[in-house]
């Protein structure tokens, strides 16, 4: 999926859209997506001016956005103004290496459980094959 199709499945927009491309997807199972990290990211001037590092919470958010695309595609529905996917929980988060400008963050997110509109995922974010972060995510699809 390219950015145009991803934008149909996520309500996020610049500067908060953190998925640039979906490389692989197995419905009801897993997704592999990328975020190209550039010096132009709006958070780098403040995090940190002399040693730019992508905030860990945004790495986790990027994995959650990839998970949301997988969820909507797996359900066979398009999100609309009456639905939103919320974080319901984040567990076992570990940060293994910093993510810096020029890195390509490759996120692999697997569905570990799905009951009604509650999804659980395990996500791993890598740079050059090296684990940068991992987390267990729980998201809920809510109707507004």
Distance between the termini: 27 Å
- Structural class of the helices, strands and pairings? alpha+beta
How much of the sequence lies in strands comes to 35-45%
Globular, elongated, flat, extended or rod-shaped: what is the shape? globular
Number of strands: 6
Rg (C-alpha, Å): 15 Å
- Estimate the mean pLDDT confidence: 95
The portion of residues assigned to helices is 10-25%
Structure annotation, total helices:
2
Placed side by side, the strands forming the largest sheet appear as 1-2-4-5-6-3
Largest beta sheet, briefly? 6 strands, antiparallel
Uncertain runs: none
SSE topology string: HEEHEEEE
Structure, explained:
- The chain is α+β, with helices and mostly antiparallel strands.
- 19% of the residues lie in helices and 43% in strands.
- The chain contains 2 helices and 6 strands; from the N terminus they run αββαββββ.
- The protein has helices at residues 3-9, 56-75; strands at 21-26, 30-36, 83-95, 104-115, 118-127, 130-143.
- The chain has a 6-stranded antiparallel β-sheet, with helices on one face.
- A hairpin with a 2-residue loop joins strand 4 (104-115) and strand 5 (118-127).
- The chain is globular and about 45 Å long.
- The two termini are 27 Å apart.
Which key features would you list for this structure?
six-stranded antiparallel sheet; 2 helices; alpha+beta; single chain; globular; 144 residues; 6 strands
Give me the secondary-structure topology:
Blueprint: H1 3-9, E1 21-26, E2 30-36, H2 56-75, E3 83-95, E4 104-115, E5 118-127, E6 130-143
């Amino acid at each position: 999926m390219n950015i145009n199709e991803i934008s149909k499945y996520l309500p996020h927009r610049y500067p908060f859209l953190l998925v640039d491309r979906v490389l692989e997807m197995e419905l009801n199972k897993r997704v592999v997506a990328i975020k190209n990290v550039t010096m132009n990211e709006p958070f780098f001037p403040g995090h940190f001016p002399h040693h730019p590092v992508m905030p860990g919470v945004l790495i986790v958010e990027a994995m959650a956005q990839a998970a949301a695309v997988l969820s909507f595609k797996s359900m066979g529905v398009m999100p609309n103004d009456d639905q939103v996917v919320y974080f319901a929980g984040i567990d076992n988060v570990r940060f293994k290496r910093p993510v810096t400008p020029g890195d390509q963050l490759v996120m692999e997110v697997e569905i570990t459980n799905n009951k009604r509109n509650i999804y659980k995922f395990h996500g791993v974010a890598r740079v050059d094959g090296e684990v940068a972060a991992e987390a267990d995510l729980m998201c809920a699809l809510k109707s507004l």
